[in-house]
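Q: Entry one of two.
A:
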Amino acid sequence: MPVAIVTGSDSGIGKATAVMLAERGFDLGITWHTDEDGARGTVSEVQDMGRRAEVRRVDLSNVSEGGRVVAELADALGGIDVLVNNAGTGSSSPFLEVSLEDWRHVLDVDLTAAFCAGQEAARRMMSGGRGGRIVNVTSVHEHVPLPGSSAYCAAKGGLGLLTKVMALELAEHGITVNAVAPGEIATPMTGQHEEDPGQNERPGIPARRPGAAREIAAAIAFLASPEASYVTGESFVVDGGLTLMAAVRNLE
């Protein structure tokens, strides 16, 4: 069976992605940092579909843990075909008030740990000889700035360009590397606890609502599929038209 590892799959986008990939026949490697119950819930849903699941706790502020957990899960599951670098964090402080400690923490978790995980996954995909898929979950703030989020924007922008370099270098080995850049999604990270996004009016978004985690998972699952074998080095923005609003504002 094909194997996918999804970091931060205890809730939100990561959980939805793990479940959707299990629906499509993957065995799953699942990671969590603070929500063990959430991770166990993901494991249960994966196993209910007849797929294997391995779960590990990981603290990606220790950046080398990104590579270690990929290696450990790949060994337990018998290989790796897909890596989804989903785990992340953020901070909200004006640029002049961001401490060096907070800056480093966000870049370590969102960028450097993803680099370490991607490097380990790519090496194993190459040695396996079957190619593979790496999907890095960035943000619309890979592309547009957000006041008060200098570290987060720097990390996601860096991950977006890292995605392109990885895609260039790994294409000859049959490995595609793409980013998915979500807009506002109804998940615990945005304080919405996975409620129905249709109930939350968003006048500033053309779709008039936040997105659902499963909508992001569908984009990731496509990029992980054989149908996406000719797509690499791209950033797939899934934001309900949020980034289009810059054009509207420029006309006002």
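Q: Entry two of two.
A:
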Amino acid sequence: MNEKLRYLLCGLAMGAADVVPGVSGGTIAFITGIYDQLLNGIKAFNTTFFRLFLTGRWKEALSLVPWSFLLPLVAGIITSIFSLARLTLYLLHTWPQALWAFFFGLIISSIILMMKGQRLNASNIVLLIIGAVSAWFVTGAEAMSASHELPHIFIAGFIALCAMILPGISGSFMLVVMGQYAYILSAVVGLDLVVLLTFIAGGLCGLMSFSRVLSACFRRYPAQTNALLIGVMAGSLRTVWPWHEQSLPSLPPVMDGMVLLAAFTCVCGIALPLLVQYIATKKA
């Protein structure tokens, strides 16, 4: 029961993060230590599963899927998107700098955790730099105008959910870049089932394909993949820095109470995952 509660809480955190453009649910999965389980859980929906399911051997098909992990996680994500999302958006409009600083601290902390045991030889350093530069320019892209026809919604879901499981690149930010963020968020609030089901269908196709690519990279080239993802997360810090001037990070315009609050929430963001990791290590 404790494990299921943990997965539910992880899902709540991932859902809340995915609503905010600039914060990745994959980053939260990394911080909470469920990233490998997430990839393996998605990969369980393979050709064997669908072959058994479509031939009526449902019990055998369903036994291949880690439901004890996926059900509470997905329940947490969905619950968060439809409920905590409102709180997250409220905080984003009321205390934006403090919230962005908290997410900035979370990403810093996840980079620290990912750096543990990482071998930084020449090739890994090059990959880290490539990841950082790529993420820097991707997260600096301006929103484009886009059609809201169903094929475009399907493609947006495909790309956004691929980004969702990639630490450092936010799925909701990719929706902003594709010009679909406000439209999809309105569909969530208004329960537009046609749009939502099309978006989910595209997202599931993206998840089931991209998760296999990521898993294969981790299996064959673990150090190199880790270095590339560390770079991506470092480059994505551009998006979550609390103050910007013409899309570039800048210093706060005035030193007021908000700066102190942002500094405090940033420290909390850094400390929280490190504390969780320390407690988990002590228990182990």
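A: Comment on entry two: The chain has a mean pLDDT of 81. The chain has one domain: 2-283.
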